[in-house]
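Let's do one together. I've listed all components of the complex below, 955 residues spread over two lines.
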Amino acid sequence: MKSAVIVFPGSNCDRDAAVALKNTTGRSPTMVWHNDNELPKVDLIVVPGGFSYGDYLRAGAMAGNSPVMREVVAHAKSGTPVLGICNGFQVLTETGLLPGALIRNAGLTFVCKSVSLSVETTNSIFTTGYDKSNLITIPIAHHDGNYFASNDTLELLENEDRIAFRYSSDNPNGSQRNIAGILNEERNVLGMMPHPERAVDAQHGSTDGITMFATLTEQLA
Amino acid sequence: MVETPIITDELIAEHGFTKDEYKTVLAIMGRVPSFTELGIFSVMWSEHCSYKSSKKWLKTLPTDGPQVIQGPGENAGVVDIGDGKAAIFKIESHNHPSFIEPYQGAATGVGGILRDVFTMGARPVANLNALRFGSPNHPKTRHLISGVVGGIGGYGNCIGVPTIGGEVNFHPAYNGNILVNAMTVGLADTDKIFYSAAAGNGNAVVYVGSKTGRDGIHGATMASAEFSDDSEEKRPTVQVGDPFTEKLLLEACLELMATDAIVAIQDMGAAGLTSSSVEMASKGGVGVELDLDLVPARETAMTAYELMLSESQERMLMVLKPNSEKMAQAIFDKWELDFAIIGKITDTGNLVLKMHGEIMADIPVDPLVENAPEYDRPWEKTPEAPKIQARELSPPENLEDVLLELISTPDSASKRWIWEQYDHMVMADTVAGPGGDSAVVRVHGTNRGLAVTTDCTPRYCAAAPETGGRQAAAEAWRNLTAVGAKPLALTNNLNFGNPERPVIMGQVVGCIAGISDAGRVLDFPVVSGNVSLYNETNGEAILPTPVIGGVGLIDNLDRTANCAFKAEGDTIILIGDTTGWLGASLYLREVEGREVGAPPPVDLTTERKNGDFVRYLISDGQIDTCHDISDGGLLLALAEMAIAGEIGANIKSPEIDIPLFAWAFGEDQARYVITSKQSEAILGSAKSVGISAAVIGTVGGSALTLGDSISISVLDLANRHRSWLPNYMANAGE
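Okay, and this is what the predicted structure of the assembly comes out as:
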């Protein structure tokens, strides 16, 4: 599987995503700088976490308008799987690839901890390896992870089985309907606040992120 | 043109000079200095930059060891960790600004210490913070906690370096002077370490990073004076941080450092462009000529004085090899940072500043640095505190109540509310996060780890400075040992009141002597540090607080330990002697409301012996559960182990000739609790090397019990432990 990780000024989980991809897929991703107008042809694009452009204006807002994201949107529309993690999720909502918005956490503070997630759908290239009856443990670390959308959008997401993950016990940020990750209509774009790249080896305390990367590799090999 | 003020006695006094100090300035210059020159002397000779009150004593600290690549005197200390890698680290205070403007004060503290570490070529891998706040009942405390924690998180989270450890204490002595000590640990290749000594006549002096504004002018001078009620007026001297720019600066510097272009590099911290250019010239024995018209400025019409004294953040100064300027500029252009050649290295030995075609300053660098004042301030030995005999105290009615109180008292209650606001997992190498004896980060791409901790028990230092200094270093060493790490070196942050008062100076002298002892006996040298004096408001000084930041190495991450009880039936062993020492204890302070008595003595030979034994057991794979015993004594340690493991323990009533409460809550040093399935073997090897070890109970059940005296469910303990801080912070309206 060939993959690419987008790097904005202020991205800070780009290396973590690259290491997770390399260790679980056996192949290093191409790192693509934000000013690049061209994206190599890859099987998977990862928009990583961090504080792109310092999160100035609004988390993800400036990255959403960067040259490289125009390319990412085009690739996504032609079917390339795109995974947005944390700030990457915020960026994807800013581009319109995913509906809704991530607003300030209900508790108004940054929250970093491991959380328990329920896998809500296995009908996607990202989640097909998970067992719906099991809870998974993945860390979160964000200030603006409170998922917000109109009731119509939320109903649509529920009806189309596009909610990928929900916080299973405590809702750490006030997200509507405990939403932690959602898919686009074509199911090739996933945005999630939790960090699967921080749960890929025994020393992380959880290895539940491996399934996602391993499944992607299997299907995109 | 802005009119230059005339040098008057008043202006000289405003710049903090004594009469004698100003006489030295005149002797060095051979004339009356210009306004800009006066400003430069003022900041370079401030306590903060010159260490004039502490230098004499700092020289007595042990700084050598086979592992030490660079001791004090550079931007940060450097120790060899093997495999061609070095750990680079330092701790630094941002106390005064954090009290005036807690969010920005703390944020820029983190930013400053990060720069100290990456300016040497290291990628920062861990941040820690040692914080001291006033009484929880003081009206400002909540606001200060909320601002400081917000600032530390805001900066560290954005730049993407995990904040993985630290400590938080409360005491009324900090009501008017909180302490914010920030530590950064980085990793570098031993053959890619960068220093600040400038060289090469004609080489370009390059300014990179943010533009210079009027913020933070005289920050170093502010940090060298006491506070009074009007300290709020000093708000404009606090700098404003921009972690996004710092992230760009970090990546740009590391990218440039991967090439061969840099001769010397120095961050612009306290005293900004002044101290960076003077230090680079002084260390290299060269002169520097700067054209201040070329300094990237954020504001118009800035004077030479302002440009030289600004403490705007996220800036670096470097000297480049000839013909590498273009390549270097391309890197900074990519990261969209300012890059300006503002001057050159000369062979005059002078710092020459030009602006608008005029010479604004021309100071010989050597005397500016070498003739900086150094004082042997009078000091008084702290009177000896009385030894408290446990037998003479009236025993508490109910040990259960005492344990519940001690587990939830502000100093010992869980700090989860704080560290969950810090990204402690970014970089994906955090092996043990906040909340344990030491935090552990993996050396990226290997199975080795760095253990890191900060420690100090100010109430011990107040009662007996020398013992307190020794204990602070010993406790850091013990905390590293408790996770299986070999302690490598320490960095210290010496926070005290006004050194012009002999009582305070006595605390400085005593604490440094104690740290020196511990450093020597424990092979735990001092490689970097920072001194923060004048922590007083209206004449009220803080407790002496010499914070120790310790770094250790774990060679095999499969052989490490944490404090959580693991399994039903494991035998609990106490390592070290228990005499029931209650002087200066948490028990006396919290239960009897008395801060009295001599602190527990620290026998460094025993400390070393017990620690080496415990570390051997961990690295040999014999144990994976270990906790050092500190504040609150044995029972508090056991309660923490039960809470962390979510499993209880049954402790036998000891057969001892000291009161039970003293056995339970005494704070004798050099002690650890470990658990094992093979207790006989461990007791046997302890006996053979003359180490005190005793079985005190068994892991199991859902409660912590002590004979017939205590039985509290682990859930109750955990709830009490975890609820104090969130409840306190939620009650903002009280």
